[in-house]
Amino acid sequence: MKPELGIIEGYFGRPWSFADRTAVMQTLGAHGYSFFHYAPKGDEFLRRRWREAHPAAMWEELRIFAAACRAAGVRFGVGLSPYEVFNNFDDEARTALRARVTTLETLGLDDLAILFDDMRGDIEDLAQRQASIMEFVAGCTGVSRLIMCPSYYTDDCILDRVFGNRPQNYLEQLGKLLDPAIQIFWTGEEVCSRDFSPGHLQHVAQRLRRKPFLWDNYPVNDGPRMSRFLHLRGFTGRPAVIAPHIAAHAINPALQPHLSSIPALTLADSYAQGDRYSYMIAFRKAARAIVGEKLSQMLEADLLAFQDSGLDHLGTRAAKLRARWSAHDHPAAKEIVAWLDGAYAITGEEMQTQ
C-alpha cells in the first residue's frame, strides 16, 4: 500500500521561481507524486499580508502554475495563513477571510490548507476558536479537500518555548470539534522528525480522531542552522508499514528545488519497495534520474561535505568544490554553487518576519 505523496512548500527563505516549481512538479508527478501545495513562507500575501491580493504579475504566474498542475494530473493546493485571526474573528475578519478564500478558489483549487503554525497559541480556548474558523472556511469553499495545520503540530516542546505553552488537551479538543472530513497536518514526534512509527501514528490518530496528514520536514533546510547544509540522502525512518496509518504524506522540500527532487524520489521507492528498500541504492538511482551519471557520482563523492560537514566546516575545500561544480551547466550544479556562495543563507530575522 502506498499513500498519496505530495509536496508542500512550507519553507522559510527565498521562494522558488515558478519555472523551477513547474519543473519539480512535473518530475515528481511522473514518479507518483499526486499533489502540490503552494505555501512558501516568503509569500507574504498568504501570511502577514493575507488580506491583500497578490500583485498582478505574481498572480498570473500562480494561475499558470495551477493550470500546469492540472495538465500533469497533479492536485493543486494553496496554504493560507490568516495571521493570528483567531485573536479577533470579528465581522471584518470574516468578510476578509471569505473574500480571500473566494479569490484563491478562482485558481482552480483542489486542496485548501488553513495554516495556524508560527503563531502564538497559549490561549485557553484555542481549539474552539480555530475549529470555529475551520467551520466557517468549510462553508465558504467548494474544494474537495480542506486541511488544517494546528498551532501545535507536534509534541515537540520547542513549540511551547517559542509560541507559549499549548492549551491542555489542545489536540484532543481539535479532534472532537473539527468535522471528520477536515484533514490535520502533523510533523511527527519532533518538528523535524527522524522517524515515523506505526505506534506513534496510531496514538496521534486516536487524539485527532482521524489519521494524521504527514507534513514531513525533510529535506527542508531552512533556518540559520539548517541552511548551512544540503539534505540529499535518501529517506530513512519512513518505513512502508506506516502507509495504513496516515491520510497522506507531504514533504517540505529544500531551498534548492532541483536537488530536492533527489530525496523526494527515494521516498516513492521506500513505499514501493518496502522491506527491500535501501536508502543509498535509492539515492544513486534518484541522483542519476535528476542529474545524470557523471554528476550523480560527484554528488555521492561530496555527500559528506554537503550534508554532514556543512558550509561552515568546509574550509579551503569550499573553493575546490566551487570550481568543480561551476564547470557544469546543470540547474542542480548551479544550486550547489549558489549554496557554496552563501546565497541560500537564512537569518533569524527572516524567520521572525516572514
Helix content: 40-55%
CATH homologous superfamily classification: Glycosidases
Proportion of strand residues: 5-15%
What number of structural domains do the residues give?
A: 1
Count of separate DSSP helical elements: 14
Q: Rough shape?
A: globular
Low confidence ranges:
none
Global Rg: 20 Å
Provide structural commentary:
There is one protein chain. The protein is an alpha/beta fold and 354 residues long. The chain has a single domain, classed as Glycosidases (TIM Barrel, Alpha-Beta Barrel). The protein is built from 14 helices and eight strands. It has helices at 18-29, 56-71, 91-105, 126-140, 158-163, 170-177, 198-208, 223-226, 257-273, 279-301, 303-309, 317-325, 331-340, 348-353; strands spanning 5-8, 33-38, 75-80, 111-115, 145-149, 183-186, 213-216, 248-251. Strands 1-2-3-4-5-6-7-8 form an eight-stranded parallel β-barrel. Strand 1, helix 1 and strand 2 form a beta-alpha-beta unit. Helix 1 (18-29) packs parallel to helix 2 and helix 1 (18-29) runs parallel beside helix 9 (257-273). The longest helix has 23 residues, at 279-301. The two termini are 38 Å apart. The model has no long low-confidence stretch (mean pLDDT 97).
